[in-house]
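Q: what sequence does this backbone want?
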């Protein structure tokens, strides 16, 4: 290939002049090409400095920018001489890990808080749900100040975090906010959900109410696989028909998420436990209903059936002797439009499993994950189908190439 042909090839695959941040060297060696070619397609291979291949993936122009950002971030994390240790304010077995471009997020639902660290492990910001002011979220409640003050004095006016995750370098926190309204001389107390984003600006952490759920009651919001658009999911119980699900295509407009398109979803039949809350999640354009064995592709309206068995069981409703058992559960997943990976916890075997499938494979491959003798299922995050971050028993951030 001549110089013009090489440049054209790079342009076609998203590696051309418009990507000024990428430095590359073009090699032309048949033996090297034949040694690493294994997909019969344009592909990229990631090696460490000693020449050991970490992983490979098909290279598509529409995925190139995200893959380059992933490799840069991954390269930075892998080259740290010491793993970043996160000094958490609270110890709890019910924590979640989320990884952004520049930050780590540890959410602690039991303690109703989140902690943000930089990639070196330095604590940057603490999100305390007890310090979120409901009136700042819903200013119309200022008209009912005496009722609000009464609820404050009785400890009934605090927000609660349901979940939190990194989207790029923003922290998205789904928060339940106490709400007071007065209708026909009756005081109506309820709880309204909203999504609050936290972001860094010149060293200061600011917040924004991204979505307040008033116009469209949405139960879960997450990113599409393109990293630009978003999806919301609503779940509504219809008498004599059961639960009805709708998806909302969403776009950011002036700091808010706006609904652009609505579609009814047809998910697989689920044998539900009465009075049991199945958490809804959206990530990389896929929807998951907790304790189920499928992922729903919101762009294609197709379903991935997973080779797992969750089988949740509940005994004794209420608070006394209340117990939920299961055979397993999906912990996290990553999807880039070509490759899908899932981390599943098998409760019967007491182990985490990595499930992987791409467009070239008919079935999922399954690999047992080991996090050391002291950990069976740590807080973890799939950054991509091949890259897993987790907190070890010393709260050090580890990176695993799969």
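A:
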């Amino acid at each position: 290939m001549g110089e013009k042909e090489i440049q054209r090839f790079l342009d076609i695959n998203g590696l051309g002049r418009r990507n000024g941040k990428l430095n590359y060297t073009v090699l032309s060696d048949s033996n090297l090409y034949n040694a690493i070619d294994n997909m019969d397609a344009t592909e990229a291979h990631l090696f460490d400095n000693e020449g050991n291949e970490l992983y490979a993936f098909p290279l598509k122009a529409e995925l190139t920018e995200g893959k380059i950002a992933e490799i840069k971030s991954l390269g930075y994390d892998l080259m740290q001489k010491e793993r970043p240790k996160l000094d958490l304010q609270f110890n709890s077995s019910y924590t979640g890990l989320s990884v952004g471009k520049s930050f780590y997020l540890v959410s602690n639902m039991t303690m109703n808080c989140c902690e943000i660290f930089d990639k070196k492990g330095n604590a940057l910001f603490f999100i305390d749900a007890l310090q979120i002011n409901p009136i700042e979220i819903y200013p119309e409640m200022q008209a009912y100040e005496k009722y609000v003050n009464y609820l404050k004095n009785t400890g009934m006016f605090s927000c609660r975090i349901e979940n939190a995750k990194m989207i790029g370098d923003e922290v998205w926190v789904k928060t339940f906010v106490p709400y007071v309204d007065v209708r026909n001389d009756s005081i109506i107390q309820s709880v309204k959900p909203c999504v609050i984003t936290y972001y860094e600006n010149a060293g200061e952490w600011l917040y924004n109410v991204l979505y307040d759920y008033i116009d469209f009651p949405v139960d879960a919001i997450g990113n599409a696989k393109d990293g630009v658009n978003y999806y919301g999911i609503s779940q509504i119980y219809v008498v004599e028909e059961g639960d009805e699900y709708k998806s909302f295509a969403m776009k950011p407009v002036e700091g808010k998420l706006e609904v652009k398109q609505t579609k009814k979803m047809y998910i697989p039949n689920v044998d539900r436990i009465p009075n049991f809350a199945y958490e809804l999640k959206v990530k990389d354009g896929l929807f998951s209903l907790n304790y189920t064995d499928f992922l729903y592709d919101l762009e294609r309206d197709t379903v991935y059936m997973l080779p797992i068995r969750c089988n949740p069981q509940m005994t004794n409703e209420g608070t006394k002797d209340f117990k939920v058992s299961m055979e397993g559960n999906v912990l996290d997943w990553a999807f880039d439009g070509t490759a899908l990976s899932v981390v599943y916890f098998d409760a019967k075997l007491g182990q985490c499993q990595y499930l992987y499938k791409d467009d070239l494979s008919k079935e999922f491959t399954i690999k047992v994950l080991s996090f050391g003798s002291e950990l069976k299922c740590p807080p973890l995050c799939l950054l991509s189908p091949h890259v897993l971050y987790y907190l070890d028993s010393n709260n050090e951030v580890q990176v695993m190439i799969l």
